[in-house]
Design brief:
The protein has about 850 residues and is mostly beta strands. It has a single domain (about 1-335, about 390-505, about 540-855), classed as Maltoporin, Chain A, CATH 2.40.170.20. Helices cover about 10% and strands about 45% of the residues. It has a 22-stranded antiparallel β-barrel. A hairpin with a 4-residue loop joins β27 and β28 (about 640-665). The protein is globular and about 80 Å long.
Length: about 850
């Protein structure tokens, strides 16, 4: 009903916007003369024209950001060809892929993120509300020589509008379907001739797109609520010095784990005439039935200060950042399929109470939680996130405190040779924990470790303290060899020491998982503490130091006043690190051992299929990349057409990749390495001003990737790199037209096309699963083949999304009607295959949403 009422309001607003226009000359805030304005960027840490950068930079100006309604990271990244974003599991978990290089969950981003010249390293800091935007630059390709560790894929550089002596005020009110509201406001001005301030705040709330059927249609699937308070103080004691200090306090309260599970068991589906057991993920109809209300809390505190001082012929820049972001989620678990809560009376009673509840096939609830394999009459076929308590409860914690500073000197003259040199330091204190706890049927109590016999006692726990210390030294030279040729060279050395300490109590016990395979259910919480694997009974602390020298060479040749050619080569680097302690033991015992020879039957299912088992370790190696790029920048048609293009080739060694395992141990998140990946691609972008009313943007990026070596899963050689679409394309149309009484009408349409995408290295071919020995045990000898999985059905289809914004401006006011995904395209945001589970976990994309927005700026 609320969607219908708002749709009617939007229709009425659209009708009101269709007012008579005058024939007066149109005004465009960016190009009053009908030509493309010059964009000045800071991608290489100094101001220069976009057309002079020897690389590919997508730069979004203040007017473009306002016209497109950019509020969050996905808004501006979806305007950028060659870049995709996945923001699915939780608010602190944002995966950005730039030209085939993706950030791995539980590792770190693969791009540098700079906000007003300060480098933020916490992955959770990127997913925020952006206010007072002036410009956003996405610098593609490895930028390690300039920005250091984790800039292997590129850099995202956000610049906001600083406060000034002028009094200012702004406010924005937005409402949309699904009870979606956004309120933003700011005040600022001068406290004196040299001291300027701004205070801003925002509040966002939404019931989300999806509803929980089991909970009576409750908005407990993807609801979201957040607020932020920002303070900024800029001091300019003289013409040479600026001190910029910022503070942010933020909080998020949202749902999490908006996933459904699907199965990829073709033999089982055919033998039992049960087609949904082998289903293309793109054909899946989502239904959310969890009995737990998933909750994701995030608290953020950030403080930074930045000093710029000019000595005349050189400038000193230094900054300091302190960041503290705590992130915790609690959600339904994935354990019903494996039955280790089957003897729990609460699990049994919840199954009986929900017998016959209409789950999506092939799942069903019988009168007993025991698998139908072992009890064909009363048993159930359960996946993940069911209405029963047999799933258990998963809790995840990712808390990070870090502080960092940088000091650099840069030349500031008109000479042919420009230079820069500096040092950087970073200290990270990070806590990561994943637990599986008992579901008592009541509202769950938070706590990674809860002893028995508590209602939410812990059955499985991975919990560690990670520390990192980083030191870097860097320098850069830019030499104008002639009036038309520039040669630049940058070099950076990063050294990172990482350590890990397990926080799991070795004396704690649980009674649900038989870690020692002795029939006595009184075992440790982590397989890494099992005496059959670790006789010492203590997980030792570990440390490792990673270092890399990262050069970058670039040359630019101005062929004419309006066209330049460039070429570059650079190196990217991400430090290695540690998985949660016990990861290797968990996979070796409960995945590899169970599938191959270590099961109660002693049958080597993986050997029979000739498929190597996954090689997972407690640590993962550093990732390095080497990239070449050739391109051109041009401005044609009397300054009305900007046309840029590039071809590139990247070799990635030990690409870091996230894997997800579920089984009779609970769930496990790890990072592994893909030994070698080859990437090649091409990009073309155009920005055309037809006249003072019309402007067109278009961009296309084509990617071809191939796994060349992969010791973790050798049979995946030849497959595509995960999380990388074959192509992305963007088209935007911007229209402005004056109206009566000083009003102006505007409209903008943004289209985004994303090609087919694999999300795992496993993409086709038969795979052994943990169901093979289970079927053999339940159905009898020779039935293990029913558990063979085949993953060609887990590739995401190509899709296209269109967004619309239209409205009027007058005086200091703007009224906007907007529609996101207004064609209501069905698509998947993410697919997480779990090959040894025999299925995948899928997250739906955003649905169509209309809304109204009123903004004021003084």
């Amino acid at each position: 009903m609320k969607r219908t009422i708002l749709a009617t309001a939007v229709s009425a607003s659209l009708a009101a916007l269709c007012l008579p226009v005058t024939s007066a000359q149109a005004q465009n805030t960016e190009n009053n003369n009908g030509v493309i304005e010059e964009i000045v960027v800071v991608a290489r840490r100094r101001e220069e024209s976009l057309q002079d950068v020897p690389g590919t930079v997508t730069a979004l100006s203040e007017a473009t950001l306002e016209s497109a309604g950019v509020q969050r990271a996905e808004d501006f990244l979806n305007l950028t060809p060659g870049v995709t974003i996945v923001d699915a599991a939780e608010v602190g978990d944002t995966q950005v892929n730039i030209r085939g290089i993706n950030g791995a969950r539980d590792a770190e981003n693969s791009f540098a993120f700079l906000l007003d010249g300060v480098l933020y390293t916490n992955p959770a800091s990127f997913n925020r509300e952006y206010t007072d935007l002036r410009q956003i630059e996405v610098f593609k390709g490895p930028q390690g020589a300039i920005y250091g560790r984790n800039a292997a894929a590129g850099a995202v550089i956000v610049t906001t509008i600083p406060p000034s002596a002028e009094r200012e005020a702004s406010a924005l009110i937005s409402m949309a379907q699904d009870d979606t509201y956004l309120f933003k406001g700011s005040l600022g001005g001068g406290l004196s001739d040299s001291l300027f301030w701004r205070l801003s705040a925002d509040y966002r709330e939404s019931d989300g797109y999806y509803r929980n059927k089991f909970q009576g249609g409750a908005a407990t699937v993807d609801s979201f609520e957040s607020y932020n308070v920002n303070a900024r103080l800029v001091w300019e004691p003289n013409d040479s010095t600026t001190l910029d200090t910022k503070l942010r306090v933020g909080k998020v309260d949202a749902n999490s784990i908006t996933f459904n599970s699907t199965f990829a068991l073709p033999v089982f589906a055919a033998a039992l005439n049960n087609p949904p057991a082998y289903q293309d993920v793109n054909d899946f109809e989502f239904q959310f039935n969890g009995n737990i209300v998933p909750d994701n809390d995030q608290d953020a505190f950030e403080f930074s200060t930045k000093l710029d001082h000019s000595f005349g012929d050189m400038t000193l820049t230094s900054w300091f950042l302190y960041s503290d972001i705590e992130n915790n989620l609690i959600s339904d678990g994935t354990s019903a399929a494996f039955g280790f809560y089957n003897t729990d009376p609460v699990c049994q009673s919840s199954t009986l109470a929900n017998t016959g509840y209409p789950l999506l096939p092939p799942q069903f609830i019988g009168t007993s939680p025991v698998g139908v394999i072992f009890d064909p009459v009363n048993g159930s076929f359960l996946g993940a996130y069911t209405p029963t308590t047999c799933d258990g409860i998963q809790e995840q914690v990712r808390n990070q405190k870090d502080y960092s500073f940088e000091l650099r000197l840069a030349s500031d003259t008109d000479s042919a040779l420009q230079w820069m040199a500096g040092v950087y330091y970073l200290d990270i204190d990070r806590e990561v924990g994943v637990s599986l706890n008992r579901d008592s049927g009541a509202a769950p109590v938070r706590g990674l470790y809860q002893p028995e016999p508590g209602p939410n006692s812990t059955a499985s726990l991975a919990w560690d303290q990670f520390d990192s210390e980083v030191f870097a030294i860097f320098g850069q030279l830019e030499w104008d060899i002639t009036d038309s040729v520039e040669l630049s060279f940058a070099l950076r050395y990063d050294r990172e020491k990482r350590s890990v300490s397990s926080l799991v109590d070795p004396n704690a016990r649980q009674s649900y998982i038989d870690l020692n395979f002795d029939g006595v259910f009184n075992d440790q919480l982590n397989p890494g503490l099992s005496p059959i694997i670790n006789p010492a009974g203590v997980i030792p602390d570990k440390s490792q130091t990673y270092s890399e020298t990262q050069p970058k060479v670039a040359v630019r040749w101005d062929v004419t006043d309006n066209t330049s050619l460039f070429g570059s080569w650079g190196v990217g680097f991400k430090a290695g690190g540690f998985n949660n302690s016990g990861s290797e033991a968990t996979v070796d015992v409960f995945i590899n051992g169970f599938i191959n020879c270590g099961n109660p039957l002693g049958i080597c299912f993986a050997d029979q299929l000739g498929v190597p088992l996954p090689d997972i370790n407690d640590d993962f190696d550093k990732e390095t990349s080497s990239a070449f790029e050739l391109g051109f920048n041009s401005q044609l048609a009397d300054g009305r057409l900007r046309l840029n293009g590039a071809v590139y080739q990247t070799t990635v060694d030990d690409m870091q990749f996230f894997e997800f395992f579920v089984g009779t141990f609970g769930l496990l998140r790890v990072v592994s390495n893909i030994d070698k990946v080859e990437i090649q691609g091409a990009e073309l972008g155009a920005d055309y001003v037809l006249n003072e009313n019309w402007r067109f943007f278009a961009g296309f990026n084509w990617l071809d990737t191939e796994i060349k070596e992969n010791s973790s899963r050798p049979d995946t050689v030849g497959n595509k790199a995960p999380y990388t679409p074959d192509y992305t394309a963007n088209v935007s149309v911007d229209f402005n037209l004056p109206m009566n009484n000083g009003m102006e009408f505007f409209a903008r349409v943004d289209g985004r096309w994303v090609g087919e995408t694999w999300f795992h290295t496993v993409q086709a071919g038969d795979r052994p699963t943990i169901f093979m020995p289970l079927f053999e045990l339940g159905f009898g000898a020779g039935s293990g083949g029913l558990g063979i999985a085949e993953y060609s059905v887990t590739q995401r289809d190509a899709y296209a999304i269109f967004d619309l914004r239209t409205g009027i401006t007058w005086d200091n006011w703007t009224l906007t009607v907007f529609g996101t995904n207004f064609t209501d395209e069905d698509y998947l945001e993410e697919v997480i295959p779990a090959p040894e589970f025999g299925g995948a976990f899928n997250h739906p994309g955003s649905e169509r949403r209309y809304g109204l927005e009123l903004a004021y700026r003084y």
